[in-house]
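Hi V.,

You were right to ask for the full record rather than a summary. Here it is.
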Amino acid sequence: MRILFGPTNREPCAVAGHELLTFGGERSTVQFSQAHESWDTLLERAQAAAGKADVVVWWLPEDDPFPDGGPSASPVPVVAMVSDWNLSFHSVTTIARRCALTLVDRAGAAVLQRRGITRVLPWRIYGYGFDSAVHQLRPVSPRTVDLLFVGNLNPAIHAERAHWLRRIAGMAGEYRVRVRGGVFGEAYWTALAQSRIVFNHSVRGEMNVRCYEATALGALLFIESSNLEVGEVLRDGRECVRYDEHTFEALARYYLDHEDERERVAMAGRERIQQERPERRWAILADTLDRLQEAGNLQWPASASKTVASALSSDRGQAHAAINAARSGHLAIACRTAQALAADHPGDVKASATLALAAAHQAADTDLAVEDRDRWRTLAWSLLRRVVQADGQAALAGRALANLSLEKRDSDSAIRWFGWVQAAASHQDGPSDLDLPLYPRLYDDFRSQWERATARNDPADLALLLCWDCALRLGQLARTAGNLTEAIGQFSRAIRSRPDLSEPYFERSDCRHEQGQAALAADDEQQGHGCHPLKLSRWPTLARRLMAAGRADEAKRFCRESLDALGAFERVEGVAAALESVLADVDR
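Predicted structure:
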């Protein structure tokens, strides 16, 4: 079988009994840009380079969009390798329905299968990013860090992990603990190579790439006991260590205090992970795809929609997926897809809304000339106004209007539209457009929770999230206008909608502090800290609020614990100085 894999900038590896070609960047077999080129161009170049491709394996289509027409426009079967389904679930369902096969982690496969999507295969996809040439032991690098986490620190995406990181930071008074984000390339690999234990906590129960990298570089991998995939490769206590909320600290102290045991397990893990090299993983996948194709199970093209309504829904989903995956340089695909959708279905309100949202995203692209951005923004505004006039429950369209108003610094318009969305979300029938893309495209609490509720197929929770978001924004606008009473009311409404999200607590704490309500302000600050324990900039605020509320002993204890924990973080001198100042005030 000849497999064409990408987009990637990596050279192909040798695959026993098969042939692997790559496409995308300069180091690939075939150079290709899906923003400007077609499926036919890609496949013609591949054929000229090595012969006709039997299948295309598309890497992370939720982030790197297909060429115009989506996977259905490809002459050969398309297999999707999906990662972050938790951040783009609606798009992933469209991708999975249109591809011959979708490879995704075990949790994602189960969720998609519950949605009736059968062409799904659980697969450990992160092994394809493991590079044995890079991830080698570095004898000259002493292991100067006892316990390391390095990775994404965004609590909106990794809320559970944030609580764990605050917990491991609490060990910084005993051990050399480091919590680092925004580290890539050689600096990232060096950090792993210099660590005795690497802490890992996956977001979906997947065997993520850090499992491969940390183990290959000789660190002892600590991974959550509930992980669904690691056990297929690494054995607990023999090649990795699996922890839970009751055992973590005891296990960490044991292995840090028993270096021989730590090294034994780490080296056994390293030896085992070498068997997971990409060339072996590719051989397994190629054999699997070959068998499926011979058995007639790589159906292509994927089953077509049988009714006008289902075809329209499928086309809208394709446009949604293109918008969701769009980044600067790929926005053109999203706009062309949405324009084709609107042209093919001129009377469909959601088709117009989809084009409007694509235009809004294009208008936010700072690479465009100012006049081009203005043109797209005008189109977005005009179409969205028509959508909400035609459909009084189009809450996501109204939310986009509210956010466009904020971008124009038109507070009155933003207040009007956020209020309109609140009413639509609170209506007994609920919003009518929950399957539209979001604008703006941020990785914040709203986006993360929205995708989770979408995966659960929970429209009631989606409506609550809209209420939460609108109340938060209306509270912020009221506070800016100096109306603290209105602001507190809106923040309270947000908290009632979603008491597990931190931002309204911090906002209400600030308002109550300004009103002189010291006890209530301290309570709110503590609640916010409980939801988001890694918001380091608010640690001194909590200490001060506890002091103002007459809770000096709590403030003192919190300052001391926090100062110890700050030893795990970088560039926190300002936070440390502020905590020292509060501690000095307590001791006076």
